[in-house]
Amino acid sequence: MPDHTPYTGAGWISRPNPTLYSPENIRRYGDLIVGKSHKWAWKLDNTRLQDLYLSHVRDPHLEIGPADLHFLDRTPAPAMAHQWQVDVVDINTAPLDTAKEKLTGRAQVRTHEHDVLALPWPVKKHHFLSLAIGNVLHCLPGAGFTTKTAVIQGMAEALADDGVAWGYTLTGAQDPMTRTNLLARVLMWHYNKADNIFSNRGDRFTDLERELKMYFAAVEICPMGSAAVFVVGEPIR
Ligand SMILES: C[S@@+](CC[C@H](N)C(=O)[O-])C[C@H]1O[C@@H](n2cnc3c(N)ncnc32)[C@H](O)[C@@H]1O
Question: Record's InterPro entries (predicted)?
Fold first, then answer.
């Protein structure tokens, strides 16, 4: 049995998608999504995404929505295995199981089965020196970042005063700040039409920037292909 925080069923806004995030699909995630989609559709530079982890991962670390834990798995531990504390939050169980498996022997891992849109998050407050949330916001239901702001509040609550959080999210195909090629537009159309895969039609770079600035005093944000990439710190209490 997985040892995730038990789910009480109360207050979730999003829904798990165990078919999409099945153990089999999680095994294919690195090759298909990080390898192919990032390169051909979203135009994400994996070296720069990996650099975010190499530059910022600390002890204790909070990983949100790991899928196959691609980038954290390729990041040297910042502490000895018996010291490095890593908490992992996800609404689906297969990513949590995968994260637990990959981090065992490298860190002390706690997994939490939870919807990031539901506050409070089941983790310590003002605690984490690093926090990553890559490719998660565009999966969450809601018409734009105003409706996803609970996640940014959750990040600010979890982060220590001197911690750093980073992430990236695909903005809507109509966002003038990011670029979508034909393949990206076709995939986004299908994923938004399908049930519970993407919900990013209304997501705009400038709205994300505004929401981040409501919760963090230090905000860096830039476009990368179809995504907005951000690094934030100094949570506003
Ligand atoms: C597209 S994958 C991102 C994987 C990885 N972080 C990356 O950088 O590519 C989305 C991840 O977010 C999780 N997720 C989706 N909706 C969620 C929610 N409402 N709450 C928590 N996790 C969620 C999925 O289970 C999956 O692990």
Answer: SAM-dependent_MTases_sf
Is the per-residue pLDDT at 230 higher than 50?
Answer: yes
Using the mean position of ligand 1's atoms as its centre, give its distance from the Cα of residue 21 in Å: 9
What's the number of domains the chain is made of? 1
Residue 12 placed within a domain: no
Best mutation site among 136, 138, 149 for ligand 1 pocket (most ligand atoms within 8 Å of CB): 136
Q: What CATH number corresponds to the domain at position 83? A: 3.40.50.150
Question: Which residues have CB under 6 Å of ligand 1?
Answer: 14, 21, 65-67, 89-92, 95, 115-117, 134-136, 139-140
| HEC string for 143-157 | CCHHHHHHHHHHHHH
Q: Rounded to the nearest 10 degrees, how much is the dihedral formed by the CA atoms of 93, 99, 104, 109?
A: -80
Burial 185-200 (b: 16+ CB within 10 A, else e): eebbeebeeeeeebbb
Q: What is the pLDDT of residue 9?
A: 55
| pLDDT per residue as tens digits for the range 48-104 | 999 999 999 999 999 999 999 999 999 999 998 889 999 999 999 999 999 999 999
Q: Is residue 9 part of a domain?
A: no
User: Domain for residue 118, yes or no?
Assistant: yes
Q: Quick check: is 15 in a domain?
A: no
Spacing, Cα 133 to ligand 1 middle (Å): 8
Calculate what percentage of the chain has a pLDDT beyond 70: 95
Q: Which domain holds residue 121?
A: 23-235
